[in-house]
Design goal:
The chain is about 65% helix and about 0% strand. The N and C termini lie far apart (about 140 Å). The protein has 13 helices and 3 strands; from the N terminus they run ααααβαααααααβααβ. Helix 6 crosses helix 8 and helix 12 crosses helix 13. With about 400 residues, it is mostly helical. The chain has a 3-stranded mixed beta sheet with strand order 2-1-3.
Length: about 400
């Protein structure tokens, strides 16, 4: 019993010593360990000297400049915490590009309206002959309307993506509810995006067919200079410069559509399949041959941002040009719509605007380069009767 009492006494003493030691350690830990993170956070320092000798300002400056880390997930772009070029892209898209686009489109409409008010509709100077000549066959007209129809849809849906929210995306009238215009904009944008993406491939097909069918007729020749010298007679009556199947103005439009359409298609594909292509890095590398000093180490995000800016810029320019083309082909010139409508045009219209082509088609001698009179042959006076094929 004595030994047992001695052991109990010793155990009690050891227990008291251990308890006191634990209390002291806990007090020290609570006074130092728990307060350290709070102190570090209040002073803006990173715990554990993680930055080494680098200052906080230097650390954030590197992040702001696009410093990249390593990540284990498939999306390696996540290693870049801050992409400053994104702000630059947003400012350009919503600022100069958007504003200049509106000015360009408004100016195009105003200039076209002013031209129509001053010049009026361009008439067939000799009047209709009543004789028809085939201008475009069925395949050519199909190609034209395939390309034109899809372009119009792409233009409308693209303009909605860029400007629609300013017109239709107003604030909801009641908190938590959307107004009718806002709902209309949401539906138009959702379905318009799908139409834009899928019809883009039909537009590309139209471009290919257009190039194959008409490239041989759109090679520049000496007659184009004479056509350009008098602006095709658009500003004066009874001036009809020589032209083959396509005049200089139509040739310019052809190459704008082909090259601009190709550029739009490539940038559009890059947007539909993000982070897949590096077109601008490679393009800049080629352009640097001329000493331009363009950046070639573009990130995937920068490639996407440049693709969007370029896609929008080229599209706006092409829309403005096509507005002029639509005007000339409809109300701007008598007899012009027939070419792509029925494919048959009046012979006098054809002789006035494409005299060399008519001569080739009918096996006649080429008209004089400076013949400003109508193309109606003296031996064939205009026939006011029923139209006949030439």
């Amino acid at each position: 019993m004595r030994n047992f009492d001695r052991l109990a006494t010793r155990g009690g003493r050891l227990g008291r010593v251990a308890a006191i030691a634990l209390i002291v350690c806990a007090t020290i830990f609570a006074a130092s360990g728990f307060d350290a993170p709070g102190i570090a956070q209040e002073s803006g320092q990173v715990p554990g000297e993680a930055l080494g000798s680098a200052s906080d300002s230097e650390f954030w400056r590197q992040l702001r400049g696009g410093a990249e880390g390593t990540v284990s997930i498939p999306d390696k772009n996540a290693g870049r915490l801050i992409q400053s070029e994104g702000e630059l892209w947003r400012n350009w898209r919503n600022g100069p590009l958007s504003n200049l686009g509106i000015l360009l489109l408004v100016a195009t409409v105003m200039i076209t309206a002013a031209f129509f008010a001053v010049r009026g509709r361009i008439k067939i100077d000799a009047g209709r002959s009543g004789r028809l000549i085939e201008r475009f066959n069925g395949l050519e007209r199909f190609t034209h309307w395939l390309t034109a129809g899809t372009f119009v849809v792409l233009a409308i849906t693209g303009l909605n993506i860029m400007y629609g929210r300013y017109l239709f995306g107003g604030q909801p009238g009641v908190s938590g509810e959307f107004g009718s215009l806002h709902t209309f904009f949401a539906a138009l944008t959702a379905y318009g995006k799908m139409a834009h993406n899928f019809l883009a491939f039909a537009f590309m097909l139209g471009l290919v067919l257009t190039f194959v069918l008409w490239v041989r007729h759109n090679i520049p020749n000496r007659h184009d200079l004479k056509w350009l010298a008098v602006a095709g007679g658009l500003f004066n009556k009874n001036i009809h410069p020589p032209a083959k199947k396509f005049n200089a103005g139509q040739k310019l439009l052809f190459w704008v559509v082909i090259l601009g359409g190709l550029s739009m298609s490539l940038s559009g594909i890059a947007l539909m399949f993000p982070f897949t292509f590096e077109m601008f890095s490679k393009t800049f590398a080629v352009l640097n041959i001329f000493g331009l000093g363009l950046p070639t180490d573009l990130s995937a995000n920068e490639e996407m941002q440049l693709s969007q800016l370029w896609h929008a810029l080229v599209s706006l320019v092409m829309i403005a040009i096509i507005v002029g083309h639509i005007y000339i082909g409809t109300i701007g010139m008598e007899g012009a719509f027939d070419a792509m409508g029925s494919g048959m045009v009046d012979e006098n219209w054809a002789r006035e605007h494409h005299g060399l082509w008519v001569a080739e088609m009918k096996g006649e001698a080429s008209p004089s380069d400076h013949d400003d009179s109508v193309a109606a042959s003296p031996a064939d006076p205009p026939d006011k009767g029923a139209p006949q094929r030439a």
